[in-house]
Structures are given as C-alpha cells and as structure tokens.
Amino acid sequence: MKMFFSVRQAFQRSLLLAACACCLAAAPAHAERLKDLASIQGVRENQLLGYGLVVGLDGSGDQTTQTPFTVQSVMSMLQQMGVSLPPASSLQLKNVAAVMVTTSLPAFAQPGQTLDVTVSSMGNAKSLRGGTLLMTPLKGADGQIYGIAQGNLVVGGAGAAANGSKAQVNHLSVGRISNGATVERAVPTSLGQADAVFVELKETDFSTAARVVEAVNRVFGANTAAAQDGRVIRVRAPADNSQRVAFLGALESINLTPAQTYAKVILNARTGSVVMNQAVTLESCAVSHGNLSIVINTENTASQPAPMSNGQTVVTQNSQIDIRKEPGQVMMLKGGASLAEVVKALNAIGATPQDLLAILQAMKAAGSLRAELEII
C-alpha cells in the first residue's frame, strides 16, 4: 500500500510539472501543441453508410422508368409494413428518391448520442428540398448497424430569376440533417497497450519525431518516450484509466517547435496559382520556352578579413535572374535566386499557366528546382 501511494504521488508530481511547463513557460511564437501535430493511436473515427428513401418531394423525385431500384425499395418497405401490392402493379412515384446516407462515428461515441448526416441522391431526382428521410440503418465496414438516421432534410442553394431565366446556385441533390442519426452501438476504443500509449505524427518526419521525444522526456522525465520510427512514438503511461486520461491531457498540451518540412511547390494548372510552403531557391539554369527565356547565374563571392584582424572568411552567394520575352522585353532580378521572384516576374510579363507548368517542370527535371513539385 505504501508503494502504491508513492507511485501515485510521483505520477501526480509529473502531472503538476507538465501543467507548470505548459502554463508558465513562455513558449516561442512558432511553437505548436503536440495535439496539433500528432494523434493518439486507436483514437479515430469510423465511417458509416446507409441506403434509404426520401419522401415528400414536390414532384422532383426519381423517374421510376429509369431508376427501377427506387420502385423495388418502396415495394419492399410497404411489404414489411403489411401492405401487399398486386404483382403486375406499376408504381409511378414522383415524390420519392433513393439516397445514400453517410456520416462519421467519432471515437468514444456512446448509444443515444446524435450525429449529423449527409443525404445524397443516387438516382435522377431533380431536388431533395422539402423531403423527409425515412428510418435508415447506418452500417460500418463490418456490416454491423451502428446508428439509425431519420429526419427532415435541409438543402442549401439560392435561386434567382431575371427576365424569364432562372439560375440555381449549389447542388439540390445533397442535403444534411443536423442530429439526424442516433448511435445504437459503441465501438470499443483502447488507449494504448499495457503501460504505454503510442503517439502517431500526422506526417512522417524523423526530425519532428526526435523533437517530440525530447519534449516529452523533458516534461515527464527521462526514458518516458522513445521513437519507434519516423511516425510512431511510444510513451509510458499510467495503467489506471482515470490517471491515463489526465496524463494524455497533459501530454497533448506540450508545446514544441516542429522541424522544417521538405520544400514543396504546388501548381494549379488551370488558374496558374503557385503555392510554396517555404522559401524555395533555385540553382543555376537556363530555360527556353517559346518566346520566353530564363537564365539564372549563381556566383560565390569570398570576403577576406583584414591582415592580423583575427577575422574569418565569409562566402556569400550572389544570384542574377534574367527573364526575357521577345521582342526585347527584359526583366533583371538580383539577389538570391528565389522561385517566388521568378514566378512573380513571369506573371508580370504575361506568362500563361501552361507556361508556368512547362517551365517549372523543366527546372525540376534539370535539377535546378530542389523541391517536390505537385500539379493539381
């Protein structure tokens, strides 16, 4: 019993140290919480899916001649309710639409809780506005029912009419039901194994993983955390559930500065938008594209200290960017060879998105652009 209290007191002291470190220490402006960089292994959402019927539409439902599954679903529903239809009956339904219902079951959700659901038409219904979703079972990937959805749909969209013409904004074949689903079954969620929990970084980065281990050990003591690889960190945690929850709360509140990610350039080929996650520099290269030409020269200049001054030799990198567009339009850029300056200059002389795409791909292939290039 005495040993139990000593262990418990040590854990409470570690939580107190964590709280003091998170609240009193002046974290730098660029520091981020661990909960923004990583998640606890096993704490996740589960997707749910269901097939149902929306009724009460104002003549904007499925055309039954082209969507026979809607008629079959209505007949099956009526039979379950004790309504028998003649075998040769042909239903002409204009106020019914077959839909798919989707939602996400959050971690630790318990029976009785409500969820928002999205209802999407799977036939040729013109609009779901004003419809009511009938009771729809929501199943997980294992085929088990985890929720029941039902309610009135809210469909977004603004309509406008002018000079006899109509304009519709947004889709009318998708709607939402706030708190439209009720959880019927909980998904067991485990917080770690035995005496440890596992923290998973949202992006694999060995430098950030090492910094997480250093920050956790600094707050909770040496050998508390150890990196399994560039994404998973094993953290020792109390075995008691209540103490483990408090420990995880303090763990997620730790502030640390993540490592700088790899350079990445994202180009939208349709609009010509270029997004860079950090300062991307270019090496020496020469690109010729149609009537555009780009020449980037990089030179190293050494600055020698005065004799007997005990100074050091400083090497600076001077770059000059020459962008030309025939006939005779020239733009000279001096300083560091920055991709941002090149893109800005190309836009100034009227380069199209296709020009930017071709030029950046050529720079990447030549090895001048030392960053990952993603085209969307």
Automatic annotation (TrEMBL):
InterPro entries: Flag_FlgI. GO terms for molecular function: structural molecule activity. It is found in: Bacterial flagellum basal body. Residues 1-31 form the signal peptide. The basal body constitutes a major portion of the flagellar organelle and consists of four rings (L,P,S, and M) mounted on a central rod. Belongs to the FlgI family. This is Flagellar P-ring protein. It comes from Paucimonas lemoignei (Pseudomonas lemoignei). The gene is flgI.
